[in-house]
Structure formats: structure tokens, C-alpha cells
Amino acid sequence: MILLSLQETLEVPPFEGVYSAKDDTALCPQQDDINYKIIGTLDCLRINVYVPEGTNPDSLLPVMVFIHGGDFRRWNSNRDTYGPDFLVTKGVILVTFNYRLGAYGFMSIHRSDIPGNAGLRDQWKALLWVRENIVAFGGDNDDVTLFGEDAGAASVEVHILSKNSKGLFHKAILQSGSVLCDWAMAERDTQAPMKLAKYLGLDTDNVDDALNYLYTIDPKLVITASIDTGLIESFKPTVEKEFFRVQSMIKDKPSELLNEASLSIPIIIGFNSREDHPNVRYFSDSLDGYFKRANASFRAKINNYFNLDDEDLDEVESRVRYFYIPDQNVGLHTIEAMFDFDADFSLMYPSLRDSRYYVEAGATVYLYTFDYAGGRNYMKKRFRVNLNVGAIHGDEIGYLFQQSSDIHPRCSETNEDKVIINLMTYMWTDFAKTSNPTPARHIFTWTPVIEEFSYALLGAKLQMIHHLYHQRMAFWDQIFEKYGEFMRW
């Protein structure tokens, strides 16, 4: 697929003969999160299809379609990070793809030509492509599992709730992400084109003039401008206004859509045990700088998520602060508590709420927490986090996908790591094949959520546990019981 600026995805023109599809290095315009360089090109929409060797075209295989994360502003689907080796050897076809990011994927101005969520429509088009073409690769288009991590998981949930995606997949896996997370959506900024244009040299109040100007600007400069102005935070999925002949991906607040949902598909939902443990992102300037930001984040996060008056905002902030840091003094001794707050509020509790909605809607739900610390913990490696226990955000990726030797030198892979790779990939592919993630060798039985919340603890030992983080989750139950009606989305 190719694209034209902020508008609809365009199909690749017809071609004759053999098309060479070996180069997967294209990525959409973004800022790299390691060296902070602006990289990428608008000609970035690619679908990667990985098929096991010796596949019999007369015996169709289950298909697993993965959506990459990156906060809707970065990342790509390339095999350096999401290599197929571990999964396809278990007898499935793996599909990955790119989608537009940042301003090009999620600018919304409340008009039919730029309604927002272009990146989500890219994903939808990729799912349509799989539906129409995967049989030619030996895949079963009636047995598709959609899975994703971080923003990819939130995207999967959008497709679960969107009528447009109905029938395009049949099972789902949400890894460390939910459309209910505070970072997963934003309220549209209809002035964004004028703000970007002004930053880049054109001062105008006319949205068409601003857009026409932005179309002439190098995309890398547009990405830079969106970061420098802070507009990047508004370029995320948003509730759309419905327009004639425009496929709307999010027609209402997700919390409302979840309340109305009626589902029968099986779903795996989970997160990692140390989701927001400190890494280099948090200490890029100084401890004092971190403490100031963390101290302010209590109020900022709550205000971003709930539409409250000052009195209610004060009350919620006070209750949250007292629960996590009772003495109110922010310092080294409160770092773990503040990271618990970030993890609970921004990811773990939304995932728990998800599971409740889906169970009530009739879905079969399997919960997990990934707790393994080994040589292939992806984000620990990437950000050089020195933590010998648990798994931080994104760490499970290294046990589901083969990755380049730059990320994981083969010599660093232990026998224990190989065991976890086998366990994770068997559970994920068994779920894709049978709707049940219990390992084929029945090392333990992964039971679905029924009345009480039971989790599979995925680590060096596999076991079912009940009411994980019960006190912290119960606290947020109380907050949402009183203020849930004021959620922004």
C-alpha cells in the first residue's frame, strides 16, 4: 500500500511478473527513541507475510496478525524487532505491517477529508488485505488472531469494538495496552494545522492554506514541529464525527462502546510485572527533574483522564497521593510507589477493567502477567535497565519474536530463555489454533476468568494466581465507582 499525505490509503498499482518483496526497511515518519533522529518516509505502508517452510496450500494454516506499539508516534513492523522464526515454526502464518504515525496518522480537524484515525484505517485496510489475499499464501482467512503490544494492543481493542472490523479476525490478544489507558486517546485539536504551519513559517488562520502548506513541507520537519510544539500528544486515536462514505473507526467513547458490547470471541489480556520500572527515559536530566515531573504527574494524569471540576480534582488527587505516598514527601524512598501509580493507572487497572467488560459481554477471557527476567527481556536490553527481577514494559517481545543480533546476541541466550521462548510461543500459537492457551504439554492449566480474577503467572514457574495486586486494584475500583462517569473516553 502507499499513501497520500493525511488522507485515505491508496492501493499499490497493478504490476506484471514477479514482484520482489524482500525489503522491509521502510518505516513511517517518526522520531527514533534511542538517538532522537527524525527518520522515515511517507511511502511506508508495508505488509509482511511469513509462511512456514513446506506449507501445503491445500491445508490452510491459522493466521496471526500483529500490530506494533510505540505510543502511536514511533516504531515499525520490521523483522529486526519482530522476526517470525519463533512463531511460524509452530505452524502458523505471521503477518505484520506498518501504519501511519503522529500527525500523518492521527491529526483530526472534524472534516470528512481529515476525520482523524488515518493510522487505524491503515490497520483496517491491512486486515481487509489479509481477508482477501491470505489464502493465496496458505492461510485460513476464517481463523485469524489479531494481537498487539502497547499502542498495538489498544489498536486491537479498537478493532474489537468497531463494526467495520467485524469478521476480519476471530481471536484477540492484548499485551500491555488497552483503549482505556490514559495515553491511548486524545481530544482532537482542530487548530493543529495552523499551529504547525506557523511554527514552520506560515502564519494563517485558514485551515486549507495551512494544510496545503504542510503538504509541501518535508515530513521530517513536520514531525519535528509536532514534537517541539507538544502537538504530538494530541495526535492519537480520537472519537470521530461521522461523515458520509467515511469509515468511522471510533464512533463513541470506548467506555460507552464497552458497556454496550456483545462478544463471543476469546481474548487474552495481560501485562508485565514491573511495567513502569525506572529506565533511562525517566532520568535523562536529573533526579530532581524526575521528582518534579513525577510530583506533578499525579494531578496531570488524573486531569487528563477525567473531566472534573477543581473541587473533585483536588479530592481525587489527595486520595491518590495518600494511597501511594502517605507521607507526601517525594524522594528516593518513593520511587517504587510512584512507578506503581504509573503502572496501575496507565495500564494495569485499564486492563483489569477490560477483562470485566468482556466477561460481562460474553467473551472467554484469559488473564496473565509476564514475570520473567532473562537474557532476552527486550526493553531492558534496549534501554540498558539493570533490574534482575520481573519484566518491564515490552520485555515479553523478545520471547515471542526473533530479533537481530544487535539486540540479542545469540551467545546471550540461555537454556532458560529457550524454555520461555517455547512456552510463550506455544501458548500464543495454541490459542490461535484452538482458542485455548494452555500449553500443549499441559505443564499447567490456564483457566479463563469466570467469577474471580485468576491470572496465569508466566515466568520461570507457571502457575495460576488469584486477585493479583488486589489492594491497589480495589482502590481504583473505588475511584472509578465514584468518578467513572466523568472519563473523557
Write the layout of secondary structure elements.
Blueprint: E1 2-3, E2 9-10, E3 30-31, E4 38-39, E5 47-50, E6 61-67, H1 79-82, H2 85-88, E7 93-97, H3 102-106, H4 118-133, E8 139-149, H5 151-161, E9 171-175, H6 192-199, H7 207-215, H8 219-228, H9 254-260, E10 267-272, H10 287-305, H11 310-324, H12 335-360, E11 365-370, H13 378-383, H14 415-434, E12 454-458, E13 462-466, H15 470-483
Helix pairs in contact: 6-7, 10-11
Biggest sheet overview: 9 strands, mixed
Specify Rg, calculated over alpha carbons. 22 Å
Bulk shape? globular
How many individual β-strands? 13
What spatial order of strands do you see in the largest sheet? 5-7-6-8-9-10-11-12-13
> In the CATH scheme, what's the topology name?
Rossmann fold
Instruction: Give the helix tally.
Output: 15
Q: In total, how many domains does the architecture comprise?
A: 1
Q: Do you know the CATH architecture? A: 3-Layer(aba) Sandwich
Report the portion of residues in β strands. Answer: 5-15%
* Name of the top-level CATH class: Alpha Beta
Describe the protein:
This protein has helices at residues 79-82, 85-88, 102-106, 118-133, 151-161, 192-199, 207-215, 219-228, 254-260, 287-305, 310-324, 335-360, 378-383, 415-434, 470-483, and strands spanning 2-3, 9-10, 30-31, 38-39, 47-50, 61-67, 93-97, 139-149, 171-175, 267-272, 365-370, 454-458, 462-466. With 489 residues, it is α/β, with parallel strands linked by helices. It has one domain (2-285, 347-472): Rossmann fold. A nine-stranded mixed beta sheet has the order 5-7-6-8-9-10-11-12-13, with helices on both faces. A two-stranded antiparallel ribbon has the order 1-2. Helix 5 links the parallel strand 8 and strand 9. Helix 6 crosses helix 7 (207-215) and helix 10 crosses helix 11 (310-324). It is globular, with a radius of gyration of 22 Å. The two termini are 31 Å apart. The relative contact order is 0.12.
